[in-house]
Amino acid sequence: MATNLQFIKSSSATNVTTLSVTDCFNQGYDVYKITLNSESNSTDGYFGFQLIDNSSSIITGSEYDEAVLGMRSYNDYLENRSATASMVSAGYDQDFGATMVLYIYNPDDSSSFTFGNFQSGGGTSGTQLFGTKGIFVHHTAEIISGIHFKMSAGSNDFNYINVSVYGVK
């Protein structure tokens, strides 16, 4: 894969349950790199993402296939696989912060599925670390214009969330 990154857009927020980054994929690249860093006030700590279609609607239907490996420092590893997910389970963030790198492929192509791979790391109070590696496919061929991040439990907030999007040449 090429290593030339072209900055496209960034978005940040504090004390929110969600963050949408819109109009970031229709830039003519086949591959996009997204970086995230966050911290939450969550007690369950899981966060994920959904894609945003070309009419600016968040895709909340069961249109995602995902396979995610959770690597916990304090317990056995766990696997999360689904062919009907309504959100991609991306990582863990409980009072300690999280980082993620996500690659998205083909979001500009209306005749191809959009898919991606990611890895993230986070934890609690510095003693219980939680890393993830995952892949996903959005199994509807359509143009994707953005991405929507959210905590898995609606009452939990991101104390802060910072997202940057790059095109890969």
Strand order of the largest sheet: 1-12-3-8-9-10-5-6
How many strands?
12
Helix content: under 10%
Radius of gyration: 15 Å
In percent, how much strand structure appears in the residues?
over 45%
What's the helix-strand series? EEEEEEEEEEEE
Compute the average pLDDT: 88
What does the model show?
By secondary structure, the protein is mostly beta strands. Helix content is 0%, strand content 64%. It has no helices and twelve strands. The protein has strands at residues 5-16, 18-21, 31-40, 46-53, 64-72, 78-85, 88-92, 95-105, 114-124, 128-138, 144-151, 158-168. The strands form two sheets. The protein has an eight-stranded antiparallel sheet with strand order 1-12-3-8-9-10-5-6, with no helix packed on it. It is globular. The mean pLDDT is 88.
